[in-house]
Amino acid sequence: MIPIKNIYYLLCYAWDKWEEKDWVNISAEDQTDLLNLLSKIFVKGANTLLKRGLQQHYILQKENFQGIKGKIDFNDSIRKNLFSRGFSSCEFDELSADILPNQVIKTTLENLLKTSGVSPIIKKEVQAALSKFSTIKSIVLTEKTFQQTQHTKSNSYYLFLLSISELLYNNLLLDENTGSFKFKDFMRDERQMARIFEHFIRNFYKIELSNAKVFREDLHWKISGDERQFLPKMQTDISIQLGNRKLIIDAKYYKETFQKY
């Protein structure tokens, strides 16, 4: 078994969030299962965001307003016969915390409350944090949701929490009969762990070898002519350029050290 402490550090490197690793004293949590560890880190991070103030963006609002506010939608106002009653259909920007990153965090907190295996103590902390998200809407999480959050301008605290949210989303299995979730041990998922492990190695070297260039690249066959179309594409998992020296690392992850074929 890989110690929880090591899995947590592996994830911090894989997400490129090494500086956030000390949110929780992992040395005191070595015997804790991964679900409760992630839950504790998540609720601690959510509380930190609440103390600092949730991110807010200007959101376009549309409202029937007595008088004028912002920009008048004349077509909508005439269609609804609002002018005769002293109203107008107005569009205006309003500063709001009800934005996608906050919606993802609130929905993840709600899902943790419905997840079996999360300790009652942590669920109490989750409930307390959730009560402070009353002005934020809950949403249905999808893969597209997390693709959209990658393009939002969020600080490192947000990005770290969104990484945990995505990991939980990918590994929470819904019981349609009870409406509760069960956490899937993603370490048994060879495909998922292979992807995480590759990101871990690449970011480990990016951080620890600051004087090197760490990247992924296509390798080209030294051949010309029509035969090239029959050759497979070659792409490195990790390339490290250190001065005049280049290292190529083939990142492979297996559930068992020795495979049998």
What do you see in this structure?
The chain is an alpha+beta fold and 261 residues long. Helices cover 39% and strands 19% of the residues. It is built from 8 helices and 11 strands. The protein has helices at residues 4-14, 34-52, 74-79, 100-113, 120-130, 143-149, 156-171, 190-208, and strands spanning 57-66, 71-72, 87-96, 115-116, 172-175, 180-183, 213-215, 218-219, 234-235, 238-242, 245-249. The strands form 4 sheets. A 3-stranded antiparallel sheet has the order 1-3-2. α1 crosses α8. The model has no long low-confidence stretch (mean pLDDT 80).
Summarize the structure.
With 261 residues, the chain is α+β, with helices and mostly antiparallel strands.
Question: In whole angstroms, how far apart are the ends?
Answer: 23 Å
Q: Which stretches are poorly predicted, pLDDT < 50 over at least 5 residues?
A: none
Oligomeric category: single chain
- Count all strands and give the number: 11
Major sheet = 3 strands, antiparallel
Sum up the overall morphology in one term: extended
Question: Which secondary structure elements does this structure contain, and how are they paired or packed?
Answer:
Blueprint: H1 4-14, H2 34-52, E1 57-66, E2 71-72, H3 74-79, E3 87-96, H4 100-113, E4 115-116, H5 120-130, H6 143-149, H7 156-171, E5 172-175, E6 180-183, H8 190-208, E7 213-215, E8 218-219, E9 234-235, E10 238-242, E11 245-249
Parallel strand pairs: 4-6
Antiparallel strand pairs: 1-3, 2-3, 5-6, 7-10, 8-9, 10-11
